[in-house]
Design a protein that fits this description.
With about 450 residues, this protein is α/β, with parallel strands linked by helices. The chain is built from nine helices and 23 strands.
């Protein structure tokens, strides 16, 4: 089930299929037959029209011969909607999730898992070559131990409709104004989140009155290894009735609220969510960051520690450190570590459990990193936007012996490697599938200072 809110005119220029102009009857978009060659970074299949333009089509797989309606046409590229698969490739399967037909939460579920991994390796190599100017082969993509039921953190969009109706779930594929109403049968999240999500939906009351008011909310559920779940509500104008929700939903232990850009505040329940993360025990606030796939993250973190090697006596900067997991491990191994993090709640947790040898500073990495360089090793783990230009400049001006760059976005990784190319060479890269069924991929790049 999906719901759409009223929509205004489209913005932006460019010719689009399906319209004859103001006031005229709507024409169906033109159709083409297309052979799909690869998967783009957004999860769309990629083929070429007879005139040479690239065409992006969701729900297609490499090798498919597909009939496609051209919905968007530009000078150098087009976008289409899949009408039917004329000749399915070997890299196609029936998607097992009941919501997949319309839901945008997954983009590659129609492909077998090994085909997804191959596609992600090609996405990384393409970004490094096209954006970074690096001639590299597709890196190894380490599979997730679990293909489904792996997410320990999930965000849903909630919209209040007329007559007290509420829809909540993921945005529809290609339709950001539309929400696909999801229950716990979604195959992405851990079982504890599925149970609590169903409980919240059953107990939020008419018009979801136990949640904060407002036409639209963002609800984020986080599950611990023990199965406890916290809820962060973003948006709205008051806390609602959070304690009533906790009392009604087994497994829900806390509710946090962030009405605007301010720091999230606890409005009911336990002040922290105890979490066991490998060899660490941490207390998470409502908005603290941890990787969403705990089993695959353990493989990635082990690779980071392996690349770092013997760190005893080294000076290390852990930038975008979150709650300081890498920094803690390095400090216990004998390094002197400075963690830099913008989120005050994450810094507070990092300091609470900091071992000797680890200190944490709060603020933007780009404003602080130069004060802690040069270093023997720098770990970078930025958000999808990558590192700021000022941070890249500081690392070039005072090169570290090595950089371990943990990236969730191949495009910004490639851009940042190009920025730092005057001072560093790429020694190795390995990717990890922390997000099965989607086109997202995490990578760990080792950079070594030149000269």
């Amino acid at each position: 089930m999906s719901e759409r809110r009223p929509r205004g005119p489209r913005r932006g220029g460019g010719a689009r299929g399906g319209s004859s102009g103001p006031g005229g009857p709507r024409r169906p978009p033109p159709t083409v037959t297309l052979r799909i060659d690869s998967i783009a970074a957004g999860g769309e299949g990629v083929g070429r029209l007879p005139d040479g333009r690239v065409c992006f089509v969701h729900r297609t797989a490499p090798g498919d011969l597909a009939e496609v309606a051209l919905t968007e046409r530009r000078d150098r590229w087009t976008r289409g909607r899949l009408l039917r698969v004329i000749e399915p490739s070997a890299e196609r399967r029936d998607a097992p999730c009941p919501f997949y037909a319309r839901c945008g939460g997954c983009t590659l579920e129609h492909m077998p898992y090994d085909a997804q991994l191959r596609a992600k390796g090609r996405i990384v190599a393409d970004a490094l070559t096209r954006i970074g100017g690096l001639a590299v082969d597709a890196p190894e993509v380490v599979p997730s131990p679990s293909e489904f039921r792996y997410r320990n953190r999930v965000s849903f969009a909630l919209r209040r409709m007329e007559h007290g109706r509420v829809v909540a779930g993921f945005h529809a594929l290609g339709e950001p104004d539309e929400i696909v109403d999801l229950d716990g049968a979604c195959l992405l999240f851990e079982a504890a989140i599925g149970r609590v999500w169903d409980g919240i939906r059953a107990n939020w009351g008419p018009d979801a009155r136990r949640l904060p008011s407002g036409a639209q909310l963002r609800l984020t559920l986080r599950a611990s290894a023990s199965g406890d779940v916290s809820l962060l509500v973003e948006g709205g104008f008051n806390p609602g009735r959070p304690q009533e929700l906790i009392d009604a939903v087994p497994g829900l232990v806390s509710v946090w609220h962030r009405p605007g850009e301010a720091t999230a505040e606890l409005v009911a329940g336990a002040p922290g969510l105890p979490e066991t993360w490998g060899d660490e025990t941490v207390e998470l606030s409502g908005a603290a960051f941890l990787q969403v796939n705990r089993a695959a993250a353990a493989l990635l973190e082990a690779h980071v520690m392996s690349l770092a090697g013997d760190v005893a006596g080294l000076r290390i900067v852990d930038a975008y450190c979150g709650i300081g997991l890498h920094a803690r491990r390095f400090a216990r191994a004998g390094a002197s570590v400075t963690g830099i993090e913008l989120d005050p709640n994450a810094v507070a947790e990092a300091r609470r459990a900091a071992p000797d040898g680890a200190v944490f500073v709060e603020g933007p990495v780009e404003a602080l990193i130069a004060d802690h360089l040069p270093a023997d090793l720098v770990v970078l783990n930025p958000p999808r936007a990558g590192i700021a230009g000022e941070a890249a400049d500081a690392l070039v001006a005072a090169p570290a012996a090595r950089i371990l760059y943990v990236s969730c976005n191949p495009a910004t990784l490639a851009r940042d490697l190009k920025r730092m190319a005057p001072a560093y060479r790429l020694e190795s890269i390995r990717s990890f599938d922390l997000f099965p069924q989607t086109a997202h991929v995490e990578s760990v790049a080792l950079l070594v200072a030149e000269g």
